[in-house]
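Sample intake sheet
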Amino acid sequence: MTKFFQFILTIYSSIVVIYAYTDPSELNPQLVKRFEYKLSFKGPHLAFKDGTVPFWTFGGSAIASDEQVRVTPSIRSQKGWIWSKNTMTADNWLLDVKLRVTGRGRVGADGMAIWFTEKAGVEGPVFGSNDLWKGVGVFLDSFDNDALQNNPIIAVMVNDGTKTYDHQHDGSGQIQGSCIRDFRNKPFPIRLKIEYVNQGLTIYLNNGITQDDNAFEYCTRIDGVQLPKTGYLGVTAATGGLADDHDVLEFMTTTYSDKQALAQNQAATDEQAKKYKEEYEKYEQELKKQQDDYKKEHPDMTTPYNEKNLYESEYDREFRTILEGQDQIRSSLTSIDKKMLELLGRVERLAVTTGTQQQIVGQGGSGVPADVARIQDVNRVINSNTDMTRTIQSYAQVLTDLQQKVNHIQTSINNQRPIGTGQQVVTPNIDGTVVNEIRELVRMIKSETNTLLHKSSTQVTCPTVTGGNNSSCVGTFTFIGAIIIQIVVLVGSEANSASKEQQEIDEKKIKQQKYQELEKLEFRPLYLDAQATTPMDPRVLDQMLPYMTHLYGNPHSRTHAFGWESEKAIETAREKVAKLINADPKEVVFTSGATESNNIAVKGVARFYKEKKKHVVTTQTEHKCVLDSMRVLESEGFKVTYLPVKKNGLIDLKELDSVLTPDTSLCSVMMVNNEIGVRQPIKEIGKLCRSKKVFFHTDAAQSVGKIPIDVNEMNIDLLSISGHKIYGPKGVGALYIRRRPRVRLDPIQTGGGQERNIRSGTVPTPLVVGLGAACQVSQQELANDEKRIAQLSKRLIDGITQRCTNVILNGDPESRYPGCVNLSFAYIEGESLLMALKDIALSSGSACTSASLEPSYVLRAIGADDDLAHSSIRFGIGRFTTEAEVDYTIEKTVEHVKRLREMRTKMSDAICQLMDDIEGLCKRCYHLQKSNNDMYDYIKEDQQLQEYIDENEKIIEKYHQKINEIFQLIKDNNNQQGEIHWSPIAIDYKKKEEEEKRLCDEKKKKLIEHSTNPEQVTSDDKGVYL
């Protein structure tokens, strides 16, 4: 039974008694903390290349490595030690030791010890060190020599140099303090804080169950400990018939000095700091020189590398999950224990209060004090008060109704009016039932009042007190408390109703607040352009980072580990890409992107088979890189057929069958169009090409990782992949090239012959790893992405089309990828809508041709006119698009479409008005010009007529300038790039004006000639001169 209670006590103390360790310098401001680097060691670079540890010496079975010191390995009957070369002189100090004890068995042996002794220890029987030491030893004893089942244990023994450690009984009669803790085989290293302040030795333990560095628990404390003023620090360990690995990862020493003593020694401290600085600089220079010499002498030597340490195994992951769950349970139990202690405290206080009251009752000789009312009496008074309040409220309502009916009768009486000259009056028809009802109400009020008075006088009487004087049963404080409770209830009711109203108001504002938050985004609009590019998935970046920092080897350098690890990473990525499309990894070639993949596929196949076949086929809606590659082949003498598409964007399989001839070497069709999202019948096209013995290439940049693809089932011979379209890095892609039946092609880039001599050049390891990770994540998320993006797409289309008229969905509504939504908004310009939706990242077409002012060739190919093509907007929905972003996009799109259409209507009215003004100006110009022409026939040295003609010409010039200004205004405001045309009426008058001006100029010229040569004036010209 004793062992059972001891076990329960151990579990309770390890779970509940947890401390967040506080540094002594924080508790005592007079203490100044100083880190002693010559008395400390930790990894990395713990040991020099010669195996020594700076400022420390070790021996026996101890082994020093880059990360830790293994004091003893898991070999039987071994002893090891490590001691500081320098002494520690301080009255107060702290040791922070991180260590790990691991072994195969359930029981370990013997243990390890942490020492502070006057002299450095030598190999001996006490955990690897000598006996009869002078100082303190902290023992981590893992073997139960005395068979008391009290191990593993952490024990403290202070020795003055005269005591011999009783190893057979685990020093049970000699240790001054201890705590039973299992420190073997923990998932994380354990940490010991050994604090010696003001002659008090305290030990705290972090048991290695959690990663929390502050999860220390109290172990033991010893007061009045006399230790040497100067001593050495050390760690020793020993094994016996059983063996464990005893590792020390960190040994950190901190000393605490008094501020006053520190101020007195400030000068010596500064001189010592200067000395330390010079020593460190000298040491740093020597270390750098040694490193450089070593690199020159051993250029091929590398650091040993263990690949298993880079990846977390499935077992480790599950084990870590279990530990995290246990840690949470442990935290919850701690919190519950604190709450339980609070409740117990309250119960104790209540018990004390109750006992005091019972004593008072016993002295008074009565069960109820004289000045305290019983709870039943208080409840009866409160209930009666509540009934009275309700009755009074009902009486108030009855009196209100009575007052209304009395007013009605009074009004009726006042409306009596005399008839004729007699005294007889006509009384309005007053219903007798009203009077009877009033009488009944009065009688009821009297009856209820008497009942209430009787009830108040009989039932609501204060009970007499059984003992003491005859005071009221309800005391002053009780009555006031009841009133306060009633007020609180009334106020709470009002607050509840007010809170409900406020809740309704808040619910209405929630949606608006979401939109306002989205509108506050500065320079970071919502991203709905997933067809242009996609954001990198964080899981992809996590796999790329190691190959961007320390795993930087060239994958084609196969003479050392750096190259091997990079090559392995690339082959792993190749397998992930092949798995996504159900291909053989040997059929995947890495490129810089889909553009390069398309160029290699189209040009490479056509050029390789050009001696036998000179015909290739594609569609009019392909990506620009495919169309430009076809034009290059045309310049080389190939015949290219650009297959048209139907109005829904799909090709006609019968027409494709008709254009495939024995001279055709390649057919290239995009799987999912990048502008309108139409999905071509790839499986049927591949089957048709296979039957015609034509190689089939498809640009799958917009479909890989978004829809299921099986290159074997779809009869695909070449397939292009882009990394940044599937939430991977930019600058990397892949090309699938079938091996059976084998597809041959000419490389378009030559060099070192990498990637099966198809794409020469060093393969970028980080980018390829990112592409492989993106394919892996896409395969995992494919089903979820398809379902979610389809829902968001339907939400977007329905939300816009139901609230806006004249909106057209471009492309086939059924055979399409839902993440690409291309809509045309009639009567507005797409560029104007894009500028209005500045807080949403959208596109009016392909990202590669977004700078062009020409309408989309894809929309033209499906039969859309230029106006609808100019008014199209592409919405790209991706993996990280949210419903809130879609709703916000709907609201803003509908708002700006309506606004732009209203502006266009107003602008059209203004243009019509300006056109009318132009017609009026043209008419006036014509009449003024005709008047000038007529006056030339009647001028006879009349200076006034000449001035009048000149004035008319100036007015005509002003009218022409005004007309040009109006035309420029129309062009600027209507954004028509100069496509404004004259009205027929204005054109007619303008032609007439030009004709009159021509005749006028001829007459003017003729008159000038006559004026210079009067003898040439004929009889027809008499009387007509200037």
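Comment: Residues 114 and 235 are 5 Å apart (CA to CA). The two ends are 143 Å apart (CA to CA).
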